């Protein structure tokens, strides 16, 4: 089975992710839905879609959060 090469970038906040993704469209976005400082994962993803519609996404929900959020 051939190996799959993956380049990844770890960013500390939603704002940082949006700024980084303005450089070009992602193939995959992995976000922490709740625990990101600043913008949460959902707000970040919405902003990413404004910049680059249609990236694949994978959500990680942190169920131990002390600040649950509903929309």
What structural class results from the helix and strand content?
A: alpha+beta
Using only C-alpha atoms, the radius of gyration works out to 13 Å
Question: Which H/E pattern describes the elements?
Answer: HEHE
- Uncertain segments: none
Strand content: 5-15%
Question: For the residues shown, what is the average pLDDT?
Answer: 75
The DSSP helix count reads: 2
The level of helicity is 25-40%
Strand order of the largest sheet: 1-2
Largest sheet, strands/sense/barrel = 2 strands, parallel
**Globular, elongated, flat, extended or rod-shaped: what is the shape?**
globular
Give the N-to-C terminal Cα separation: 42 Å
Number of strands: 2
